[in-house]
Fold this protein.
Amino acid sequence: MNLFYQPDLHLGVHSLNAEETKHCLQVLRNQIGDQVHVTNGKGMIAKVRITSTNLKECRFEIVSNEKLIKKSFHQHLAIAPTKQTERMEWFVEKACELGVDEISFIYTSNTERPKLKLDRLEKKTISALKQSKGGLKTILNPLIKFEKFIEKTQNYTRYIASVRPGLPHLINCLTPQSHHIILIGPEGDFTSPELRKALKKGYQPISLGKKILRTETAGIMSAISVNLIHHY
């Protein structure tokens, strides 16, 4: 099915923006009367019929809609952004396809990128939403200092990935149907003071395997581990 994105669908907005309209009409060559699917990224997927078109707006009427059942768990990855923007874009796209619910970007002592623009990354979440035919768009949060992030008092199971030897693998620690946060550090890893601060806040140190992974690879490994626990 062809899936398009309209974040205000549940508020009664029955049209696509210029970018989605171009994809619908010019790329896929849909016409008045054709039926496609539209999601608001918040759990609603509607089958719609195109009613009118112009170069900047494609209007539609809802034929039927489906509300996805709310997930019994929430996967939140907090990751240090890499110096190369392309690597973060790749990570965000793949993490979204794997069903990560929320991504936060954390600024640590060894983080190489002090600033981060979310515009292009947001587009990756929308692209992945449509590619995977899902109804839940991944939430992206702006860059935040590590110390401030771990101060948040959420009722999540908390993990912090580390390259230190002797730690249990994440997949052996995850509890099915639970809300959890996984911290992924930069390629220089978290510093010892950062690790100690996280432990005081209830984070459990875990391993993602014997090999030293790139930051974005570690993030994907975490997402895959969660999928294995919850879906298989």
Summary: Residues 3-67 form a domain with the Ribosomal Protein L25; Chain P fold (CATH 2.40.240.20). The chain has a mean pLDDT of 91.
